[in-house]
């Protein structure tokens, strides 16, 4: 038995699966994390029950009257479909007699089931797809493992494993599309192109702006082919094969999105953002004509890059490391790596530019700029694998700087899951701007650990409007601690969950130690050539 476990641990796929799973379990709060996801879950529930997608008492704060005057949300259908199986299961579990006394308490049982099952699945699958993609880019097993762990613990991907917005679902679909379509480019496997195209097409159901992700993948494929001397007739032939397979698949998903738009709002040709803007301008005629894209471009563009509250470089420092490694090792990069940085650097620029004029360009109450966060993760994805691959070329100084930046990145991402993200928003109501949110979060962790919550700057007046929020931001944002703070679950349940949580944490630390030891000794047993 011990021999079998040891053999499994030497398999990097098993090891990464276990690490991703345990990490996702640890960081769950049992809540959906944002009102956006809550509204999308309402839409999910309406697909198979008699509940409306938007309740009448939510309007006009949320919801848009559609066909027949029925209220609808303005989001795409993608995440709502993703949550459908877990919503069915969660509803069934929530209705069990054993939870009768707990029903109506937050976090409720249905949300716990939905958040745990969905977030864990997305986390594990994304890590495995990332491992495969790095293999296709010909990184060594050690470099691939380091890259996956850097994504998981060194980028905002960790935060959005806890905060169930659309980000990690978009990341999974884009990375899957990239991986399988690149596999097709290398091998000519038609099934890989079909799978990759389906993933990118499904993304369009989540946010229409993910069309930029689709274009970035196409640009990556084109540049990779061009830089590897695939030109002329051969390039045109491959492009034609791509178009024959991929475009009809994209067309199917575009039609599904348009059908959903028609069912809700009676038009095939407008977008939910246009409907949103029209509705809000009717309710409030004083809004600017350009609403919801009235923000001066320079405010949103430079805000996403440099403001201390939302800068992508503060929330994803591996972006800086990626820039440093690129500057010192560009001439040694392989063609596909150069193509990757051009394509996904352009994607990051496109996202920052597109949302620069949006009325809520920063993503409102979120850890960092959530609209740009996923593109930033892609731009930072290969920083650590490339640092390891080009350690000799970049020199000792860059190597040491890189190690320091990796440590800083991990500290920042671990801090991001410690508390519910509205904590700093409330504090900023009483603090003078500018506020370096990342630094404030670290101070909050120290203050809470030392029992000095009075230093948080949360006045009674600031919390009078929503005492529910106060309960949730004044405890560690993990399910056992949140249940204890809310005080509605039986004490024995809370105690059991706390024991399980600490056990999972110990197991995760042990697995990370095993991964480090095996990597140092190069003892991974990996025969799965299909993952290269």
Notes on the protein architecture:
This protein is an all-alpha fold. The protein is 68% helix and 1% strand. The protein contains 26 helices and two strands. The chain has a two-stranded antiparallel sheet with strand order 1-2. It is globular and about 60 Å long. The C terminus is likely disordered.
Compute the number of helices.
26
Query: What's the overall average pLDDT, rounded?
Result: 92
Amount of beta strand:
under 5%
Domain unit count: 1
* Structural class by SSE content: mainly alpha
Find the count of extended strands (DSSP E, 2+ residues): 2
Shape: globular
In order across it, which strands form the biggest sheet? 1-2
Reconstruct the topology from this structure.
Elements: H1 2-9, H2 12-27, H3 35-48, E1 64-65, E2 71-72, H4 78-82, H5 84-94, H6 109-136, H7 141-154, H8 159-162, H9 167-187, H10 190-204, H11 211-227, H12 232-265, H13 272-283, H14 297-306, H15 312-315, H16 318-329, H17 335-355, H18 370-380, H19 383-389, H20 391-416, H21 422-428, H22 437-449, H23 460-463, H24 467-473, H25 479-486, H26 491-521
Antiparallel strand pairs: 1-2
Helix pairs in contact: 2-6, 2-26, 5-6, 6-7, 6-9, 7-19, 9-10, 9-11, 9-18, 10-12, 11-17, 16-18, 16-19, 16-20, 17-18, 19-20, 25-26
